[in-house]
Structures are given as structure tokens and as C-alpha cells.
Design goal:
Layout: E1 3-6, E2 12-16, H1 18-26, E3 30-34, E4 39-42, E5 53-58, E6 63-73, E7 76-86, H2 89-110, H3 130-149, E8 152-160, H4 187-194, E9 209-213, E10 228-232, H5 233-239, H6 244-250, H7 252-260, H8 265-277, H9 281-298, E11 304-308, H10 309-318, H11 325-330, E12 337-339, E13 345-350, E14 359-361, E15 367-370, E16 376-377, E17 380-381, E18 385-390, E19 397-404, E20 410-415, E21 418-424, E22 428-432, E23 437-442, H12 451-454
Helix pairs in contact: 2-3, 3-9
Length: 456
Amino acid sequence: MAIFVLDKKKQPLMPCSEKRARLLLQRGRAVVHKRYPFTIRLKDRVGGSTQPLSLGIDPGSKTTGLALIREPDSQQRHVLCLFELIHRGYQIKKALQQRAAFRRRRRSANLRYRAPRFNNRTKPKGWLAPSLQHRVDTVTAWVNRLNRLAPVTAISQELVRFDTQKLDNPEINGVEYQQGTLLGYEVREYLLEKWGRECAYCGTADTPLEIEHVIPRSRGGSNRVSNLTLSCHPCNQSKDALSLVDFFATDKGLKKRLKANGHTANARLERVQRQLKQPLRDASAINATRWALFNALKATSLPVAVGTGGRTKYNRQRLGIPKTHVLDAACVGAFDALHAWQVPTLTIKAMGRGSYQRTRLTKHGFPRGYLMRQKQVHGFQTGDMVRAMVPTGKKAGTHTGRVAVRKTGSFNIQTEQGAVQGISHKYCTLIQRGDGYGYHFTPFTHLTGGAGQAVA
């Protein structure tokens, strides 16, 4: 993985290799500027020649992939760094729902006759729910951060992936867009996302999948996507014109495949029936935020190129690249070859910066405990990256990770191997101040025949 380099005045230079960064640090020509992502600052150089770098973005509801790419020409790409940004939209939504419930209880207890006033509030144009706005803000913040660490000259964003209504009628236009479900999402991409890239009936993965009608056309089934699913070839052939219940009850080949995959017929049938009714919330979140993110990226003054999900998938399958968010980000747009993509991924998890709320509450909203008023203890704060070197005892050794402080000075450290509790502040050394994110490296593992390659 490439190492970010800054000059003496903290201006970005071209990233270098790990070996070169190690030599610069050993010879005293550079100092560590930041641990995550690892950045060095030169002590004897101002300015220098740079090459054009582009930042690929694959937006997701729960995870967004970022890829820093060097493009010597319009047809060749070399991957320098991969970042997987994990959002916390669900936690934000849950916290807001809990806060609203507590507020509603207080109003009913103290002002039982006052009518709620939420209907009087108007929202500004372009307003997004906080859980959705968080995705836009987090991606934009990391684009700006990487722009300060590397000479990024362009941005590539996967934009047109979820278009949800030409599924039923490719010739649709005008007011017809208001008649139907799922406006603008490619059928196969939608089904792959909804059914987890495996056969909906037997659960087999890493095999070519076929689009199948849950209610057969001979029994009055339609071509609407709510009646479509994905199945392997044996399931598609043996189901034929059977109803869903009859297929799970009578087909012996299906039962053998279910047993081989560790599933039961009843549990799998219930899952299929439940999944048919479940909307694709993640696709809705992407639809709601994709243009807001595009406008936010344009405000960075960098040229923004957009590509479709179909083009990204075509590039990935043509080059035999596994299906991951970060590699999708590297495959956005039009190019011929992608080099050096087998690099580790820096996983960045949005953790938040703590809470203003100093009172712990029960599920009914009553106080059950109180937090200390100050956030720092012996110079450390929850979220800081620390290294603890414990000389003796059961926890002897070196522990590196995100710290959770206590008033007593006995801290907890979340390492990649798990949480280590009861570490004294005397053994802790600060590595990097908390910035609202947790970090860990995911080494590259080649996914032979992965989910991204299973479906043509």
C-alpha cells in the first residue's frame, strides 16, 4: 500500500512505497505526520513534480468504497490505495427514534393536552434525513482529507446505478414514471442485491444464476420485479410451473441441495416469502443521496466524472476482479487495464465523537446512571489511538487500538484481536488523537470465483 508524502510546508507530493518511506524515516529526512492513513512529512524538501491521480468512489448505503488511482494514460490504471468507509446511518436513525420516543413521553406526562407541533415544521429544499446526510458528509469529508494528502486531480463516481422503472417498460417516459415500482434499477443488479448473490431457493453461491418467476407465468404471474428472483439452473428447471409451496414440499433434488448447504426447507421457504415482501432500503438510500453527493463533490472544484453500475460490473468481470466495494470504486468509468489492485484495504468505520448526553437512561427514558462531566482523563479521550506496553501480569505485552477512558484511569483498548480491559493510563502512549473513526487493515485475499464473478 502506498504511503502519503507531504513536503516541508505540508503540501501533498506523490505517494511512495513502504520501503522508501521506511528509509526516509530511518535517515532522519522525514517524520511521521499521521498514522491513519499513514503519512510522512519531509524535512528537507519543498514542492516537487507530481503525476495526475484520480479518486474512484463506489457509494453504498452501509459501506462506500474509495480507490486512489494513478492514470499514466486514459486506458491504464494503477491502484495506489484502497479505503472502505463504513457508515453509521442505522445508529443515527436508531438514536433519533429513541430521542423522539423520550420526548413524546415527557410531553404526554407534563403537557398531556398540548398538540404535537411537528406538522408545523417545514423543511428546506434538498433536505435529507440525518442518517442520509451523514453518508454524504462522511464521503465528502474523506474526499477532502485525501485531497490534502495526495495530488488528486479528478474524481470518478458511480452515479447511475439505481434507476427504478424501466424494468417493466423500457419505453417509459413522462407521467408514466409515476405508475409502478422501482424506478430505474437494472433488473439483474437489483435481484443480485436483493437476494444476496445466491440462489433464493437452495442457497447455492458461486454459480451462474438465472432470473426466475416466483409465480409462474402459466399461473398468472407477471414480469414485475416483485415476482422475480434468482435461482441456480437445477432449481429453475425443477421448479418449472410449480407454486412456491409445492416446490419446497415435493422436490427431492431441492431438499438434497438444501441439506448440502446447511438449510431446511421450512426455514428457506419462510425466508423467500419474507424477502419477497421486503423493499430494498439500501437502494432507496442510494437513490436519495446520489445527486446530493454528486453536487457536494462538484463543490470541491475537482472535475467529477460519473459512470454506471453496469459499466463498473462489466469492467470487473472482464478483468477477473473480485466483487468488493473498494474494487468497484477502482473499476468506475471507461479504461482497458487495471494494475496492482491486490493491495490491503484500510477499513474506516465511522464511530462518532461521543455524546453530549451525560445521563444514561433506561428503555423507558428514566435516569439510571450519570457519566463524568469531563471527557479527558490523564490526557486521553475515548476514541484516541494508543499503544499500551504492559510489562508484567496477565495482560503483559503490547496492545494497540482505540481507547475507551474511565474516570479511575483504568482504560479499555479495542484491538484487532478484541477488547483488552483494565489497562492503566501509565502504560499508554498516544499515537493519534480521536477523529471520530476507527481504523484497521484488511489484507488482500484472492477470492477465487467470488460472488462478483458468479453471475454473468
